[in-house]
Amino acid sequence: MCSGWKHVDKGERVHFDYSDEELSFRKELKGFLDGELPVYFEFFDLPQQERFDRSMEFVKKLAARGWLTPAWPVEYGGSAHAPWQQMILSEEMIAHGEPRTGQYMNVNWIGPAIILAGTPEQKEYHLTRISNGNVVWCQGFSEPDAGSDLAALRTSAVRDGDEYVINGEKIWTSNAGVAEFCFLLARTNSEARKQEGISIFLVPTATPGVEVGDIDAVVHPGAFHHVVFTDVRVPASCRLGPENEGFTIVRKLLANERVGVARYHRAAGYLDRVAKWCDERGLLDDSSVIETLAHARVACDAARVLVYQVWDERTRGLHPDESAWVYRTAAVNAERAVSEAAFKLMGAEALVRHSHADNQFEWATTAGIAGGSYEMQLNSLARVLLGTKG
Amino acid sequence: MGPNDELAEELRASARKALDDRMPTTVLRQVIDTEDGIDRSLYALAADLGWLGLTLPESVGGSGGSWHELAVVLEEIGRALAPLPMIASVVVAAGAVMLAGDDEQQQRLIPGIADGSAIATGALFGASGRPDEPLAARVERRDGSLVLSGVSGFVPDAHVSSWMVVAATDGAVPTLVVVDSSAPGVRIERLDTTDVTRRLAHVHFDDVVIPSANVLASADAQHVIDELVRRAGVAIALDSVGGLERVVEITVAYVGEREQFGRKVGSFQAVKHHCANLLVFSETARVAGRAAADAIDGARWVEWAAIAKSYSGDTYTEATRIAVQCFGGVGFTWEYDIHFYMKRARLSQQLFGSPTYHRQLLTRELRSRTAD
Ligand SMILES: Cc1cc2nc3c(=O)[nH]c(=O)nc-3n(C[C@H](O)[C@H](O)[C@H](O)COP(=O)(O)OP(=O)(O)OC[C@H]3O[C@@H](n4cnc5c(N)ncnc54)[C@H](O)[C@@H]3O)c2cc1C
Fold first, then answer.
1. Any idea which GO molecular function terms this record carries (chain A) (predicted)?
2. Which of A300, B103, B205, B297 suits B329 as a labelling partner, its CA being 20 to 30 A distant?
3. Considering only alpha carbons, which residue of chain B is nearest residue A336?
């Protein structure tokens, strides 16, 4: 296993090592995880309710150790540890099947959005609950006609005295079936440019008029939902940040989401299992097998070092969109490389449901769409690179 | 277009109509939920339409046609994702008996395959289902009878078979025997695989007694196995050709309807290139597949078979990956059909030898040719 490369300082210094303190944190964390989750399994393979129950139990323990939101400021329930602790956490969690399930989003960007734009009351209430590890959120962004073109969303929130009245439909909303809150994007001004009329609402899913349905999906069954809002009334105090500035806030925070999921690390974990599978069959002397494994490994480690670079820039107060997009595409490529290698090496045995190849294939397939499509990432990069519009 | 092609196009039109009527994906969705996952009445229709006996000789109930016509039917089946055990029964099992069986065996076993009253399969490989790994089934003589034990992995359609041709070692050499699927000692372990349109099983043999009449009389069983791998490989390549063609159609239709940013998503250059690549894959796989079908028994058969199977295996999987990407979120729902193709492509890629395996065969074949 790669213990870690980090701190790539463009052109100047390159540090590939974690500090002793960080290494011992990783070791302690792994020990805890091995105790709590003795066998590797995909949380996503569990039925939704069981996944939810086990995750809730687990995350509370994580929070009690100060390992849920270590990088957050102390006043919001964090311990202001170096951001690398969060990176180590994100790698180890995903290596163990992401037992935080939906709560990883709270840590990566929902909490930070509230830190950035919340009122003192919102911070007090939500950040306490998030950092204690006992609340699940879902992300209500996409709509049937607003996927890649997120800013075209039509769910509306109309001010009525001290309340907003929300109407519309969200789709692909992961975890909505178990979430207590929805981080919702809705249109508050239909006259303005489409990006400039959107606000954020922190909506309790138990509010009358919120209806959650299942989507019959071929991946992660039970995890996808649509959420319909019919005359849903929420107090104006549910709005996060100024009216009509939701899109700007979300854009900033989604860069966190892009680099917050250590996809390359999960893929590398599957690759390790495929390598072990090959080893058990005496295939590791074959140079074409070694080459196939190494090819996929390089894709994972290239993505790893890219995200470390972004993270390093963050610690120095820079928020480079570009390198986050480069990382995101490299991570999708790593997912695909491991999936291809697994099929190539495992042959017919890859076809069995939940084989290493089958699991990785599922992740690699959704990777190009979830959280914004691969093509849209390339569009953004090309725009910066070529200075073009569109 | 020669007369041959007019016939082939008539056959294509009638096959497409039959499958459009009988196996639209709405029906497919019901069939895959049944215990056996095949539609027996459609199989009976396939027999009536003469698909099953197409390449079998008239003396055993077939119509003595060529692979040129069989190719058409296989393409249409792949296009419709039809869950028909035709490759296992006709190409592999009947093919084995025609290649290695004697007159009596052919007369006894083949008419049932041609008229669809029996379904058969071939269990040709070891536990991992790979042609390049040792067999894990063996026969021994015990008290004057022949006894089969061991396992064959990833056998297609074994669960609906009435008999199967099994490759087993007899001492140091392979042999082929016909095994009654319901004989004592045969256990069919169904596998939970991702392609729901075709079923696979591990078949376990626990001291199964093989009547001497069921030993296929061939001097060189390995040669027969290799030929069956080529034929099944080409049959799968043709199934993939039909699948690819449909993948292009439904993807182009979707991106021509779906709008984002006030435009059809198919108007974005990135998506256009995806679609153009799909077409390149589809057209190339088609000519390679058809060239292979027409090359059977010819001087370049071995070469074309390897090209068709390896090319279609990689392009069908890559094309379906790209297609799902073009569909975005809806590509992951049961409601749309594209995921069926993605999974069928994965199975096709690995069944009867992976692309890597077939490329190695190709290299060996080309080398042996230059050595001549
Ligand atoms: C596993 C998974 C989990 C998800 N979870 C959530 C969630 O919790 N909450 C949520 O709100 N959403 C979620 N989504 C939705 C996701 O954000 C959208 O699916 C994604 O933004 C793409 O939108 P779409 O599906 O409408 O595809 P479309 O936007 O219709 O795209 C279809 C195709 O067109 C391409 N395309 C579109 N526009 C352009 C362009 N301008 N240039 C080039 N190509 C273009 C796309 O790249 C894609 O290939 C999830 C999706 C997945 C797969």
1. flavin adenine dinucleotide binding; oxidoreductase activity, acting on the CH-CH group of donors
2. A300
3. B321
